[in-house]
Amino acid sequence: MPQLTSFDGREFEELVRQTARWVWSLPPGEGASQFVGGYEIDCVCRTEDVIHLIECTVDRTLKKVRQDTDSLKAAKISLEKQGYTVRPWIVTLHEPSPDQRTFAHNQKITMLSIEQFRNRILKAPDYINSRWNYRFGSAADPMTGAAKLPEDEYVSLPLRDINTGVEYSIQDISDLLVQKKLTVVLLGPFGAGKSLTVREIFRNLRLMYFKDSQQPVPLALNLRDHWGQEDTDEVLRRHSARVGFAGRDELVRAWNAGLLLVMLDGFDELASQAWRIAPADPTNVQRIRYEAVKIVRAFQKENKGRFGILVTGRDHYFDREEEMDRTLALSPDTVKIEIAEFTEEQAQKYLIRKGIKQILPDWLPRKPLLLGYLAARDLLKEVLQIDGAKGVAKAWDIFLDKICEREAGISHDIEGRSVRRLLEVLATEARVSHGGAGPLFDSSLSAAYTRVTGSEPLEEARTLLQRLPGLTARDQQEGGRSFVDPEMLDALRGSAVARFIMDPYAAPAPEGRLWNHSLGELGYSLCGMLTAEWNLSASVHCTAAREAISRWDAPILALDCVLSAVHRTDDEPVDCNGIVVKEGQAETLDFEHASVSNLELQWCHVKTLILGDAQPENVRLYNCMIERIVGVSDKKGLPPWIAECEIGKYDSLQTNAAIMRSNSPLQVRVLLTILRKLFLQKGRARKESAMYRGLEPNAAKFVPQIMDLVRRSGFAERISLANGAIWHPHRNCQARVQEIVSTLGMNDDPLVRQAWNLR
Questions:
Q1: Is the same domain home to 190 and 254?
Q2: What is the pLDDT of residues 500-510, one digit of tens each?
Q3: What is the pLDDT of residues 472-501, one digit of tens each?
Q4: Is 562 helix (H, G, I), strand (E, B) or coil?
Q5: CA-based Rg of the chain, rounded to a whole angstrom?
Q6: Which DSSP helix (H) or strand (E) runs through 628?
Q7: Do 96 and 138 share a structural domain?
Q8: Residue 112 and residue 124: Cα distance in Å, rounded?
Q9: pLDDT tens-digit series, residues 596-640
Q10: Is the same domain home to 114 and 128?
Q11: Structure confidence by residue, pLDDT tens digits, 358-411
Q12: Which residue range forms the structural domain that includes residue 64?
């Protein structure tokens, strides 16, 4: 829509006619100019009871108002003689001057600005203020779950274009939506700050509207409120009721009139009711997702490019980008933005607002929800006491023990290890939920307590259940609790799997067939670390995997057992002895570094498969869905042991072998392989001996110099242990490493420049 100052008389008349059609619900073509009583009236709108006569003016003079008044009075007299009820109007481009308004009032003519006239479609200020006071998705107080947050709660997060790496500000995103009229998709894991970012974009658009009413009216929908709804008008009416806005039909009229800029928060929340329908069938799951987000496609279709649309959801909800594009009806010019963790500077700024000035340990995620929760619970003291020298998995293990011991100390009637076991059971229970983090309700909390302690929870125990560490009332379902952070959740699940490996004859809860989520890298690592500490061999992992399949019908648990053996720091070969896993899930299958043999996967869902130069012994993947395969460039490069599989994306330049075949100088290639080993395998420190693996002698000679350079440049820390040194990467260097590796060292990073000079 042109700015106010750019309208000429004809354009303004057409704007008024268009607005009048929506004010009085007239069909297209009505509200045109007509000659009435010998005078041409700019807009004549005939309703069932009244004929509205409207004159439009961009002129600020009283003379023009007198002329319009003469025309309206003559036309009104002519129609009243024919028995019609008539109401005359003058609509001005600018706010009427006092003398104009006084003259029109004395002539019994309604005079108002176009802004006031548009408010007859929608009382925009009333809606905007009502919406601001209603919950924005999961953005809430991390302690109480209350939706009311300070006006300036938001601290800038890294917002990066997924394809180009370009960084955006809140104003940049607002401009993409308003000026360029583009669809913007905002992606991130739970706890990353998606809903808080939507709230801040709404806040910015709200300020833009109050400065200039010709700007679009921001309308933010929590998609979870609208499960099962397929019509936009139905959604808008329910939304009006939810936020306490009286004009239920006004929002529908405003949407049809093109006044609204719609933000759809949480496309991943729409499939929760249908998620348990054959979850292991990838085709069926895709169909469920497609049907569930029908309302997103409806808004896209009806929007017709009047303004952009903002859509948000979890980054790994779809199997691959092509499915997301098709399911959400995204056009090729859609801007896809990911939310990264706080930078160190942003994290410190956020914590200072919470009254905390300490420096955070390297292993702790920099996510707004987790940091806010730890600050509110005064748990950062426990965090700051932990020595991360033994790696991320060990740090999380110590942290879980500390917070559970603290909670037990408050309750007096339960031990810290029982609190941790409670959380592990609940983390496993959350595997059934479609999002993986919850919600969990009182029945689940009570059942977990009974499972761990052998008795029903009494009143004091029920109080404990409501304040369990790591759970928050942020969920929109009444009484629901969700886990506050995906890494904390993954660590608890890894710990639970380790207990299962120690005793695979005890039934996992809930029933393993119902699980929807595999362990992540941290979970694998923590599980492998614990079983090694308990002196369980890698072969015990495989025994547990067999029991998970044959005794408990739990294929996801079976793969968790196998892959956590792969992540053990003792590098013991994993011989699966012919295990066949059907309909399992895996976060990562890494055959570049892992020594796995005698394993077959059928109809499994693998997010990332990494291939090396060496072929695994007697391993077969049949009819699996693989979201991303690293190490080959196309279907022709697939090895024969990968058969009839659906591949989402090929990536040939990300393995160490591929890097060593690139054209970069040898010492830079060694740097890249070491950075990949340190940073791109999350959740574990690396043995120093692993840095030499896969390198020819002429390349291996650079490893000591490169490792010293990495240490001196602050990328990693060397820790000496009894059985050899390990290297612990510093997570604040993650973004730099990704840039270095993605460009194969062809950027101007100081670390790369120093590597070039090694001899």
A1: yes
A2: 999 999 888 77
A3: 765 555 667 778 788 889 999 999 999 999
A4: helix
A5: 31
A6: strand 625-630
A7: no
A8: 16
A9: 889 999 999 998 888 876 678 899 999 998 888 877 778 888 889
A10: no
A11: 778 777 888 877 887 787 777 877 787 787 767 788 888 888 888 888 777 766
A12: 4-118
Sign of the Cα torsion 536, 537, 542, 543 reads negative
Residue 432 falls within a domain, yes or no? no
**How many structural domains does the chain have?**
3
Give the closest residue to 518 by CA, choosing from 560, 579, 558: 560
Same domain membership, residue 73 and residue 155: no
Residues 112 and 142 in one domain: no
Q: Is residue 750 domain-shared with residue 683, that is, in the same domain?
A: yes
Size (the chain), residues: 759
Residue 456 lies in a domain: no
Tell me the residue ranges of DSSP E strands in 499-584: 574-582
* Antiparallel, parallel or unpaired: β 716-721 and 646-651: unpaired
298 is written with which tokens?
Answer: 């409806």
Distances (CA, A) of 391 to 326, 380, 387: 41, 19, 9
When mean pLDDT is compared over 92-106, 268-282, 409-423, 695-709, the highest value belongs to 92-106
- pTM of model > 0.90: no
In the numeric block, which tokens belong to residue 715?
Answer: 């990328």
Q: What are the tokens at 509?
A: 């809860």
Peptide bond into 457 cis (omega under 30): no
Task: Determine, yes or no, domain membership for 458.
Answer: no
Q: Report the distance separating Cα 213 and Cα 210, nearest Å.
A: 6
Residues 267 and 169 in one domain: yes
User: Six-digit token pair at 438?
Assistant: 């919850």
Find, among 319, 285, 312, 273, the residue nearest to 296 by Cα: 312
CATH number of the domain at 68, please.
Answer: 3.40.1350.10
Structure tokens at 66: 């007198």
Task: With residue 737 as reference, give the H or E element that holds it.
Answer: helix 734-742
E runs forming strands in 306-365: 310-313, 335-339
C-alpha–C-alpha distance, residues 523 and 501, integer Å: 14
Residue 100 and residue 192 in one domain:
no
